[in-house]
Amino acid sequence: MTQEPVSLAQALASFTDRWSPRIVTAVNDYDVRVAKVEGEHVWHVHDHTDEFFLVLDGELRIALREPAGERSVVLPRGSVFTVPRGTEHKPSASVPTTILMFEPTGTLTVGDRHEKVPAHVDATTGHALS
């Protein structure tokens, strides 16, 4: 990890892949990741960690399967939302969207349990910035 400031605009300009987060820095045992997203991710669960989302640009929808039933939250630009650990969820974006996430280092983007991962989703623990 660099000890220099990181421009999020430059970090986001350094890649084009969708659903393939880049690690921009770390805070304690957490990665700070940015990603470009569009289309649907995959239904998945993080059994041992919450997942924090900040929408930098665009709009993110997160479908949630909760004990009370299924619902969706819509996050416009500048919005934050935390998916509680153990909650099955599926992010999606109908327009090109950029997001920032906090996740424990080593957390797989498709969670601990997930449905079949489509080709457009990168099952990774995050990529270093190039």
From TrEMBL:
<protein>
    <submittedName>
        <fullName>Cupin</fullName>
    </submittedName>
</protein>
<dbReference type="InterPro" id="IPR052044">
    <property type="entry name" value="PKS_Associated_Protein"/>
</dbReference>
<dbReference type="InterPro" id="IPR013096">
    <property type="entry name" value="Cupin_2"/>
</dbReference>
<dbReference type="InterPro" id="IPR011051">
    <property type="entry name" value="RmlC_Cupin_sf"/>
</dbReference>
<dbReference type="InterPro" id="IPR014710">
    <property type="entry name" value="RmlC-like_jellyroll"/>
</dbReference>
<feature type="domain" description="Cupin type-2">
    <location>
        <begin position="35"/>
        <end position="93"/>
    </location>
</feature>
<dbReference type="Pfam" id="PF07883">
    <property type="entry name" value="Cupin_2"/>
</dbReference>
